[in-house]
Amino acid sequence: MNRLILSSALIVGIVVLIAPRLGEGDAPADSASDAAMVVDEAAPVPAGGQAAIERDGSGQFHVEGDVDGTQVRFLVDTGADVVALSEGDAQRMGIVPDPGSFRPMVRTASGTGYGAPIRLDRLVVADQELSDVDAIVVRGLPVSLLGQSALRRLGPVTLEGDRLLIGG
């Protein structure tokens, strides 16, 4: 029950942090076809290029990434200081933090969340490869977040209507 409450609180916290940044006045997603929109995969983004991510049916931006050889679906969170991995994604990568390494480090709508700091050797997102990326594994996090420890290294992040542009 506590896990469900924490998960719900994290989702609310993420929505509260992200929703205002998604562009006030933009038209809401209005069809089932919007839910099928994902990363623009028409062509690879050249080094120094720009990746365009379409808003999905929930009004958020998701991007596929490769973390140390494991595919991870990230919610782009410009308000998150670091990349935050769900425990499930971390376990798929073979990352199982010592339970004693979790400490209060995440603010949510319902209080403090617990995370364990880690470092990602290699992260590929928006066709750019990053190394030595600061991250945390967060207890109860329902989806992994692509935060500023990666975004600021990828280049500018800008919103144009229902597209989030990364890099350039």
Main sheet summary: 7 strands, mixed
Portion in helices: 10-25%
Average pLDDT reading: 77
Q: N-to-C terminal Cα separation, in Å? A: 44 Å
Q: Return the structural class.
A: alpha+beta
Report low-confidence residues grouped into runs of 5 or more: 1-47
Taking all Cα atoms into account, the compactness measure Rg is 16 Å
The succession of helices and strands, N to C, reads HEEEEHEEEEHEE
Number of strands: 10
Q: Total helix count?
A: 3
Strand content: 35-45%
Shape: globular
What's this, in brief?
With 168 residues, this protein is an alpha+beta fold. It contains three helices and ten strands; from the N terminus they run αββββαββββαββ. It starts with a helix and ends with a strand.
Highlighted features:
alpha+beta; 7-stranded mixed β-sheet; 3-stranded antiparallel β-sheet; 3 helices; 18% helix; globular
Can you describe this structure?
This protein has 168 residues and is an alpha+beta fold. Helix content is 18%, strand content 39%. Strands 2, 3, 4, 5, 6, 7 and 8 form a 7-stranded mixed beta sheet that branches. A 3-stranded antiparallel beta sheet has the order 1-10-9, covered by helices on one side. A hairpin with a 2-residue loop joins strand 9 and strand 10. The model is unreliable at 1-47 (pLDDT under 50).
